[in-house]
Amino acid sequence: MMSERIPEYEAQMRGFGIEIVGSSEELIDKIDAVMVVTQQGARHLSRARPFLERGMPTFIDKPFAATPEQASEIIALARQHHAPLMGCSALRYDPTIIEALRRQDEWGPIL
Fold first, then answer.
1. What is the DSSP string of 68-107?
2. For position 1, what pLDDT does the model report?
3. Which residue did the predictor score with more confidence, 90 or 50?
4. pTM (2 decimals)?
């Protein structure tokens, strides 16, 4: 379970001299941009909201959101507050993916 690994990660970050804060609100005035990174896209909207509402440049890792409605709300917040927003995946550079895309005529479309 990932939550069991948090203390280890916190200790490692503290060892690098990184300050650990308890909330997004404590973090906002200490940073210039944010990366919202979790494996659960359903959490991205709530975690990105305070930063987007401040107009802060925000990167959201994949999956960008859990539903099209959440994705639309994230984009709307970024537009409303003029917050630069980015989300992407490095999978397009994976040699396996590149080969699969090249062979779609042979294998059929990748969905």
1. HHHHHHHHHHHHHTT--EE---GGGG-HHHHHHHHTHHHH
2. 52
3. 50
4. 0.76
